[in-house]
Design brief:
CATH architecture of the largest domain: Orthogonal Bundle
CATH class of the largest domain: Mainly Alpha
Number of domains: 2
CATH topology of the largest domain: 434 Repressor (Amino-terminal Domain)
């Protein structure tokens, strides 16, 4: 099932319908103002279970009502092409990582190269990347 609203839109609209300011929701949920602002700004695309539960409690929702809006990003993640993933791997191996951005949320990718040893005792380089904000990874 696909939802047209993003997580940030859903939380902001639900908060406003409940009559809460950002500060009011922070107090009601036990989260910080900054956490709620980041969620509503679209910076946090996936929520840890504890944050989702606190947010749901503050908004008087079931955590599953919030979780379903996080899945929009998973649909985008599934559409990332194999060609893009290969381009990212090549850039990592070439050391061109300065401008690598997540295709899901646009945040900077954290990169590294794993040095593996194959059965013939040769070193194999394996590029990896992980988004600094969401769960996107290049394995």
């Amino acid at each position: 099932m696909t939802y047209s609203k993003s997580l940030s839109e859903y939380i902001r609209e639900t908060r406003e319908k409940a009559g809460f300011s950002v500060q009011g929701l922070a107090k009601k949920s036990g989260l910080t103002i900054e956490q709620i602002e980041d969620i509503e700004a679209g910076k946090d695309l996936f929520l840890p279970a504890t944050i989702r539960q606190k947010l749901a409690k503050g908004l008087k929702l079931n955590p599953a009502d919030i979780k379903k809006y996080e899945r929009i990003i998973l649909d985008i993640y599934d559409s990332v092409s194999a060609e893009y993933l290969q381009d990212v791997k090549n850039a990592i191996l070439e050391g061109n990582t300065e401008n690598l951005r997540c295709p899901v949320c646009g945040s900077k990718l954290n990169t590294r190269i794993m040095h593996l040893i194959d059965l013939d005792n040769n070193i194999a380089l394996h590029p990896k990347a992980q988004c600094s904000k969401c769960s996107f990874q290049v394995k």
